[in-house]
Amino acid sequence: MRRLLLSVSVAAAVLAVAQPAEAQFRFGAQGAMITSIDEIEDAPSLNNKLGIGPRIVFQPPAFPIGFVAEGLYYFPDDAGFDFSYYTYSLNGTFSLPFPTISPYAIAGWEWRRTSFGDDSDTQNGAVLGLGVTLNLGVSLFLEGSYAFTDDIDLDEDFDNKPLIIKLGIMFGGGGEA
Fold this sequence. Notes:
Shape: elongated
Order of helices and strands: HEEEEEEEE
CATH topology: Porin
Helix content: under 10%
Structural class: mainly beta
Number of strands: 8
Number of helices: 1
């Protein structure tokens, strides 16, 4: 009889605190500015350029650890150049789940693709950052992250270790990061 009572109690507790899966996923858009990146001679500059892209967050309610998948396309100067730069990343987050303002740390792996004319190069490396989310019906976030990677092969003097400032809005779910 005790086992039955314990089983029913556990099932009732799980059902009482369970959240639907859509409450754990949030989707949004972000803008970013890339800084501290060297320039390639005779190529458009990426330093202090803006980018846009999607962001998807998986964050279980009242749990401090979550996951973020995002992509950004940057708009370099276009003076007749065939040049593009975009990034994709998968990150883990650790947040302090306060109701209105939630600070968080983010760490993960980023892939960067640079194309210049017929040359292209893909780099990858770790990303570390800090951010804060403001929860007011929708979630607004501000994040700064630093990307670690090897120098890019398009030019041996090209230092591709940017500081990235992101600002965005998230819809759905509730909560952090």
